[in-house]
Automatic annotation (TrEMBL):
Pfam families: DUF5947. This is Uncharacterized protein.
Amino acid sequence: MSAAGALGRVIRSAADRAATAGSEVCELCAARLAGEHRHLYDTGTAEPRCVCGPCSVLFADDTAGRYRLVPRRRLRLPPVDTAVLGVPVGLVFFVPRSDGTVTAQGPSPAGAMRWEVDAAAWRRLAGTVPELASLAPDVEALLVNTVRGFDAHWIVPVDDCYRMIALVRREWRGLSGGGRVWPAVEQFFKELTERS
């Protein structure tokens, strides 16, 4: 069989898998994904990518490359005084980066708003909350919700944070958010479960 024939078969196979109606596909190999699937964090685009089981295994130990496997750990924390980080919103997540910087991101009707956080302030806070020092750079976050009397602080994989951003965008109505967004956010937090 010619190389051109084999390549054509691979391309057609990938296109067939991608064209399957109503199904998500692996963003690396185009294999059909199960409802529950893993994510890789793409350091080049700073976005999570949906991946199949084999592709997630392929990058499981690559902590310095372009793609990093997003861990599954979730850990509920006691209240953390994030006011020292200077971010004036109550629904936010903090991500330490591989280069030593720390970003804060909060959902809005237009997507995520992003701020740089003082790295020294983050290190001081991590000195008082040891679990924060264990966050895997780029792929784990401190997720905080102190809106409307809610008080939740979690270490979560970044894909949970992006799910929360998508939820806010989907449910937001008008200038103030409407009546659906905050109950949906509270439900999101109630459904978080600890896992290692």
